[in-house]
Specification:
By secondary structure, the protein is an alpha+beta fold. A five-stranded mixed β-barrel has the order 1-2-3-5-4. The termini are far apart. InterPro entries: EIF1AD, RNA-binding_domain_S1_IF1, TIF_eIF-1A. GO terms for molecular function: RNA binding; translation initiation factor activity. It comes from Parnassius apollo.
């Protein structure tokens, strides 16, 4: 099988969502960071952190970034690397898992709980000079006095 054909099949498999729920030995985890050599550090819903490996068929074809959710399957010989990636979850499959009540409560979005923040509380970039907005009140009062002088 050529590289192009293999890539096409792997991409179709990854993008085609079969909406299959995780099996009992599989778990949903969140990617924390990439460690290189096709290893990724993840966190479980319980808060445990460990490394997972990217299977050979996904390498150089599919990329996983920080914040993505994946399904992993434990590997028995794992000491530092305890699991292998089975599936990378898309937004549609995450939505399906939430509707099926399979999604871990620990991974629920906190965006709904965030309250609007005042402009004063926002981060100020110290690399930029802070310019005060143009005040036209003092200029308009001087313009009024000049116009009154010109009328007399």
């Amino acid at each position: 099988m050529s590289k192009v054909t293999k890539r096409k099949h792997v991409m179709n498999e990854a993008l085609w969502d079969d909406y299959e729920l995780p099996k009992e030995n599989q778990s949903i985890v969140k990617v924390l960071k990439s460690k290189g050599n096709n290893l990724h550090e993840i966190t479980t819903p319980a808060g445990e952190e460990y490394l997972v490996s990217m299977p050979t068929k996904f390498r150089k074809n599919i990329w996983v970034k920080r914040g993505d959710y994946i399904i992993v399957e434990p590997i028995p010989e794992g000491d530092k690397v305890k699991a292998e990636i089975v599936k990378i979850l898309s937004k549609d499959s995450i939505k399906f898992f939430k509707e099926s009540n399979v999604w871990p409560k620990e991974f629920e979005d906190r965006k709904k709980e965030v309250v609007a923040v005042d402009d004063d509380d926002l981060f100020v970039n110290t690399n930029r000079t802070h310019v005060q907005p143009y005040q036209s009140e003092s200029d308009s009062s001087s313009d009024d006095s000049e116009s009154e002088d010109n009328e007399k």
